[in-house]
Write a structure and sequence with these properties.
This protein is of the alpha+beta class and 98 residues long. It has one domain: Ferrous iron transport protein A (FeoA) (SH3 type barrels, Roll). Helix content is 15%, strand content 31%. The chain contains 2 helices and 6 strands; from the N terminus they run ββαβββαβ. Strands 1-6-2-3-4-5 form a 6-stranded antiparallel beta sheet. Strand 3 and strand 4 form a beta hairpin. The protein is globular, with a radius of gyration of 14 Å.
């Protein structure tokens, strides 16, 4: 269920949504939702994967699990779980001073 009661939470409704398993290495994304059951949503929330969380795929690990970075922590997600995590791509961060 969307949380419209939180005014300070940014909205990502207008951005395209793709499964985390389809994101390229290094692409910054924001978590839009999880298309799984209560158990999966709860387990991922305990790992810091909540709507609005910014994350990045560190290693796609073909044919193994994905390694992602979220809140200064690296996590490993199996492909099945990664396919249920829906994210919206963000523009790459701009480089700092030369």
């Amino acid at each position: 269920m969307p949380r419209d009661s939180q005014p300070d939470m940014p909205r990502y409704d207008s951005l395209p949504v793709v499964p985390l398993s389809d994101v390229l290495t290094g692409q910054p994304v924001v978590l839009a939702g999880i298309s799984g059951g209560r158990g999966l949503r709860h387990r991922l929330a305990e790992m810091g994967l909540t709507p609005g969380a910014r994350l990045e795929v560190v290693n796609r690990g073909r044919p193994g699990p994905l390694i992602i970075s979220v809140k200064h922590t690296r996590l490993m997600l199996g492909r099945g779980a990664a396919h249920r995590v829906m994210v919206s791509p963000l523009p790459p961060a701009r480089g700092g001073a030369p």
